[in-house]
Amino acid sequence: MTVSKTVEKAGDAKGRKEAPEVQGEALQLGELSEQLGYVLKRAQLKVFENFLRCMASLQLTPAQFSVLLLVDKNPGRNQTEIASTLGILRPNFVAMLDNLESRDLCTRIRSTNDRRSHILVLTDKGKAVLTRAKKLVATKHESRLNDLLGQANREALIVMLSKIANEF
Amino acid sequence: MTVSKTVEKAGDAKGRKEAPEVQGEALQLGELSEQLGYVLKRAQLKVFENFLRCMASLQLTPAQFSVLLLVDKNPGRNQTEIASTLGILRPNFVAMLDNLESRDLCTRIRSTNDRRSHILVLTDKGKAVLTRAKKLVATKHESRLNDLLGQANREALIVMLSKIANEF
DNA sequence: TGATAATTGTTATGGACCATATCAAATATC
DNA sequence: GATATTTGATATGGTCCATAACAATTATCA
Q1: What are the chain B neighbours of A72 within 8 Å (beta carbons)?
Q2: Which residues of A fall within a CB distance of 8 Å from B62?
Q3: All domains in chain A, ordered by first residue
């Protein structure tokens, strides 16, 4: 395909700025492809997209998976503790838990120490689902990074991203 | 919907599951800290946050900056072309352009070849703002990655993220 | 040629996610 | 015991993202 710069008609000059017009060719990303934020965002979207595909059978979003992981690793914690370490605001965590509880994956238990708070615990079904989810993530999701980058690079990537997340 | 209001008293375990209750200590992230999606998302949020701080004087979001960069690098393209290469849906691109145009950074020019389309061009002010923005990004934003990771690692990171964005 | 299809920018709209203010109940503080 | 703080929850608004639909224009092709 050939670039055809169109000569604009001379008659329509209303003091309008004339722009060179291009067709068909692929756009030049230019410096965009080296902008950290740009490439980071696009990578994140791709990874989430793939995560959702891998988890289609369990119907778990990345955020829901992180809640199950964290509750399982930290039994006996309340909503604010779990939510805040995940960067989720308490009001927004309510609907999330309603969802998980309605699917019998997680339970709110009123604490006997502090009857304001709700202790979070995974149900048996929740634990089973989490186990299956971990396997899916390992075999279908994370393994794909190894294929793409190699083991060493994959680990280096995680380390660098963690550093950015914690120290930037 | 109201849940059983405070009917249970302390001490009566009526078939209620008792959860071990913990207080005060920091939560264990566990496998979460090695989940690609988790660390990727948190890093992205931090980077965007820092970007906005650096650009406060110019009032440019990452998305707006990317539009200016792309229009500058590809003069004579129309809205759909610019939007699609940025992953922005055309309907959502309209308000974005309205904003940039109202600030006199970008202009829509009706094409004489195809009178359906609007050719996008940066205004003089838009070019000036972009130049200043690039400088701010380089000196205040991207440089921080070098300080944190080192030049070589920074480049390796961008390469890996691009690979994920394009091939995952 | 003329009828039909496709494209462009746009509007309207709904969903998902995020942030703030506010509330009642329970607890902490003084 | 009066006041302040914490916890879960509701209401609400903003932003981003996705789809449907429309008028104007252009492409297709019978």
Answers
A1: 30
A2: 37-38, 41
A3: 31-167 (1.10.10.10)
CA(A84)–C1'(D28) in Å?
58
Do you know the residue count of chain A?
A: 168
Structure tokens, B151: 């030049």
Both tokens of B147, joined, read 């300080």
| Inter-residue contact B126 to A3 (CB < 8 Å) | no
Contact A62, A54 (CB under 8 A): no
Structure tokens at A130: 């989490």
C-alpha to C-alpha distance for B147 and B40, rounded to whole angstroms: 20
What string of pLDDT tens digits covers the 168 residues of chain B? 333 333 233 333 333 445 566 666 789 999 999 999 999 999 999 999 999 999 999 999 999 999 999 999 999 999 999 999 999 999 999 999 999 999 999 999 999 999 999 999 999 999 999 999 999 999 999 999 999 999 999 999 999 999 999 998
